[in-house]
Amino acid sequence: MKLILVRHGETASNLKMALDSLPPGPPLTEAGVAQAAALASALEPESVVAVYASTALRAQQTAAPVATAFGLDVEVLDGVQEIFCGDLEGRHDREAFEIFLATVRSWAEGDLDVAIPGGESGRQVIDRFVRAVDKVAARHAADETFVLVSHGGAVRMAALALATNVQPALAEAGLLPNTGRVVLEDSGGGWVCTSWTGVDTIV
């Protein structure tokens, strides 16, 4: 079984470096629409049987061309939305980013009960995301491939929780570009990460 986790395409919030976690959120920019089309082309060699997206508009718009390429519909999936930023929502200042990054660093190092001020803890993020993945994986045969379009922070934490070979340093530092991908495969012994955009070797 193959799970292709994808970060959504570019939005205006990305351009101004704003912490933007509440759905439905902003749409894709023109560049983001082009990124989504390129993603669909890049995934053509795969045998995708299902395409899922978070409750955010940007994720659904990114997933749409992929679904169309395979003659599928996008299924909106609860639980795979971005890390809820709480009191940091909408901010794009240095202090907000330092708080956010320090919190995610704590999670990657194993302190999952630390929460973003007014927002989620790492345990809450991982529990909901893993529960959602388990739910959809149970629908698919062992040789099937499915795509899940989500969000950078959530994907990184989910990969750390799901894959046996993703180390904390990778989850912390392996920032995904728009439409960047993390590929997980399960041959019966649990998920293993086989590809991470921008990373040459998965240790």
Please characterize this protein's 3D structure.
With 203 residues, the chain is of the alpha/beta class. Helices cover 38% and strands 16% of the residues. The chain has 7 helices and 6 strands, in the order E-H-H-E-H-E-H-H-E-H-H-E-E. The protein has helices at residues 12-15, 30-42, 57-69, 94-108, 122-137, 152-162, 168-173, and strands spanning 2-7, 48-53, 74-76, 145-150, 181-186, 191-196. A 6-stranded mixed sheet has the order 3-2-4-1-5-6, sandwiched between helices. Helix 5 packs across helix 6. It is globular, with a radius of gyration of 16 Å. The protein starts with a strand and ends in a 7-residue tail after the last strand. The model has no long low-confidence stretch (mean pLDDT 94).
Strand residue content: 15-25%
State the helicity in percent bands: 25-40%
Low-confidence runs: none
Write the element-wise H/E pattern from the N-terminal end onward: EHHEHEHHEHHEE
Strand order of the largest sheet: 3-2-4-1-5-6
* Mean pLDDT level: 94
Total beta strand runs = 6
| Structural shape | globular
List keywords for this structure.
203 residues, alpha/beta, 6-stranded mixed β-sheet, 6 strands, globular
Layout of helices and strands:
Blueprint: E1 2-7, H1 12-15, H2 30-42, E2 48-53, H3 57-69, E3 74-76, H4 94-108, H5 122-137, E4 145-150, H6 152-162, H7 168-173, E5 181-186, E6 191-196
Parallel strand pairs: 1-4, 2-3, 2-4
Antiparallel strand pairs: 1-5, 5-6
